[in-house]
Amino acid sequence: MGIASVAVYGGAPKWKQTQELQRGADIVVATPGRMMDMLDLHGTAGGWPSTSLERCTVVVLDEADRMLDMGFEKDIRAIWTMLPTEHQTLFFTATWPKEVQRVAADLLSETKVMITVGSGGQKLTANKSVTQHVQVIENRDKWAAFEALTASYAPGGADHGERVIIFANTKRDVNMIGDVLWERLGASVDTISGDRVQRERERTISAFRDGSVTVVVATDVAARGLDVKGIERVINYDFPCADDYIHRIGRTGRAGATGVSFTLLTPSDGEVARELARMLQKSRNGVPHALQRAASSGGGRDDGHRRWRK
């Protein structure tokens, strides 16, 4: 597009980003912590910031809800003090909880315009281009159900060579699943989690884009911002919170394409069943009877083991 842009984020060499900033940029895309470094708001550069926001006229806060969840409010407010008085602010957020509303009220000007996407208003809404399947199972049956979902990606299978991203809630499970699938599927499998350094994550994403890697197992570090064309399917080995579920399944069905998601739901997820059922109904997906029962009861305990109430 002929626009000079610089990406500023941690895990990559600071000196290289400094050089790019000092050559001049129309747009800077940054994480809050590294931007603090570039403005020397941490006081570690001896009062020699790498750049200035004096000429910044538009500031965009993307994934605002997630950044606040991660504790970046203090950094964001510090960066805002460096902006000129006259500027335009844009908030992009998947949810609109009270803490996001509070920060938005402080940082936005008196003239506000709110635009919502979809028909859910201020409630969570899933992408209608994604056909969502939810399988309600007992914990003991979870691994067998997962193996059935991934069997078609083996050599000779119906989905071999198709892109799929598999989400788990913990790094340990990501590594375990990645190892198992590596043994079965070979070099087409890789992982993205907090255990991988930035350059390893970038290498995996690049391979995912060019098709040399077709199966990625990831934590929620890949649930937002990952835009890879041709992801046919998302599999949720674990159910996250409702917000992250929306982002996970949004890795497929992008830019006019359609996609499919499969989610394994166990009794320990009973407290989110009601919200999941509402989202499925709102996005015109069928709500399984087992999920309807779970939504009605919220799960229960029987002889020391958590089970769905009938």
Quick overview:
By secondary structure, the chain is of the alpha/beta class. Helices cover 34% and strands 18% of the residues. The strands form four sheets. Strands 5-10-9-6-8-7 form a six-stranded parallel beta sheet, sandwiched between helices. A two-stranded parallel sheet has the order 1-2.
Would you mind describing this structure in some detail?
This protein has 310 residues and is an alpha/beta fold. The protein folds into 2 domains: 103 residues, Rossmann fold (3-Layer(aba) Sandwich), CATH 3.40.50; 178 residues, Rossmann fold. The chain contains 11 helices and 12 strands. The protein has a 6-stranded parallel sheet, sandwiched between helices. Strands 1-2 form a two-stranded parallel ribbon. Helix 2 packs parallel to helix 4 and helix 10 crosses helix 11. The longest helix has 15 residues. The radius of gyration is 22 Å and the shape is globular. It starts with a strand and ends with a strand. The C terminus is likely disordered.
Detail the topology: elements first, then pairings.
Blueprint: E1 5-8, H1 14-22, E2 27-30, H2 32-38, E3 58-61, H3 64-69, H4 73-80, E4 88-91, H5 98-107, E5 130-136, H6 142-150, E6 163-167, H7 171-185, E7 189-192, H8 198-210, E8 215-218, E9 231-236, H9 242-249, E10 259-265, H10 273-282, H11 289-297, E11 300-302, E12 305-307
Parallel strand pairs: 1-2, 3-4, 5-10, 6-8, 6-9, 7-8, 9-10
Antiparallel strand pairs: 11-12
Mean pLDDT over the full residue set = 85
The counted number of beta strands is 12
What does the largest sheet look like? Answer: 6 strands, parallel
Q: How many individual domains?
A: 2
In terms of DSSP E residues, the strand content is 15-25%
The helix/strand order is EHEHEHHEHEHEHEHEEHEHHEE
What is the name of the CATH topology of the largest domain? Rossmann fold
Terminal CA distance: 57 Å
Label the structural class: alpha/beta
Instruction: State the share of residues found in helices, binned by percent.
Output: 25-40%
Number of helices: 11
What is the overall shape? globular
